[in-house]
Amino acid sequence: MFPTACRLAAKPPGFFKRSAEEFSRLSRIAWNTEALSTPTKPYHLLNFEDESSVASCKTMADRAVGGFSTASIDYVPAEPSTNTPAHARFHGTISTKLPDNWRVERTGYAAFRNQDRGLWLFGRLYWDLDPYTYLALRVKSDGRRYTVNIQTDTIVETDIHQHRLYTRHHHVRDSEASSSYDPLSPYSSPEAAESPEIAEEKYPTGIPEALSDVPPPSTIMSSMSATTSGSTGWETILLPFNAFVRTNHGLVAEPQTSIIRQRVKSVGIGLTDRVEGPYDLRIHRIWATNGMSEGEIEEERRICGTAALPVDEGVRRNWVAPNEDEPQKQEKPEGKAKGLKGLRDEWD
Known about the structure:
The protein is of the alpha+beta class. The protein has helices at 5-9, 15-31, 51-55, 196-202, 294-304, 313-317, 339-347, and strands at residues 43-47, 57-61, 70-76, 87-94, 110-114, 119-120, 123-124, 134-140, 146-152, 159-164, 235-240, 245-248, 251-252, 264-271, 277-289. A hairpin with a 2-residue loop joins strand 6 (119-120) and strand 7 (123-124). The longest helix has 17 residues, at 15-31.
């Protein structure tokens, strides 16, 4: 396949541009003294309104081991008439057909992530997400059970921190999803129903809340209980960084460790539900945040409609208690002497 002129124009930034952008970002932080307080503005990781962000992503599927699943990520221009922003379309087909290779026992997966961010003047470039609490994603889902993947600079390079992407359109299997099969459900299949032996191997201490098929109450999903009627299909999902689960080759790794937020290498989304058929996920942006700010709410309401998240009160007040918004005025004591005599009176 030969690169087209459009694809070449949308190529990822080079070494000097990466260095200039990182210098600019760090300069803004220093100038605004943002490092001395909790950030209230979003830190965009992948902004798919920019076609170069789509070009900087890579796809993966079981075709690498001889499988038949497909994965593509394309840039979709904006449609102002429907308030649809420019975004990336992650789509393809999942197949659980096994190749003619006795070494391959399971297929049926597809994923995408950003490519390594490369080098800049001071070494390898990482995202420093330490000041942030949530990973935010604005998506339009077809309801399939996607997983968000974060990879950091760790000793074990194959370690990935994962969290299920719960949306308002999320299809839930039966309560015993790991071992049951509903023949009437279009999102369930004999191949997707895992045997107890496989489930025990993947989750030796039980299925973690963040990877469960049912959204846990501890996960911040304020739009989960709302109806989907009247919405645009777009929604913003907030996933707490401390809720991600460390995995290795699809198995939960022990002991569990927190994400090294200072050295994040890549962010992506995968589909491993092993349900035969097409999938289609639209992604507008992926960013780190401490909550929805007033500056973001206009875009949030325009794109997400009735599914828009509210402004986070903590972000609005910069995490100052309501009774501390205004500094208390100290009343001057009456009859207090001035100068050295007044200072002597205070010590006495």
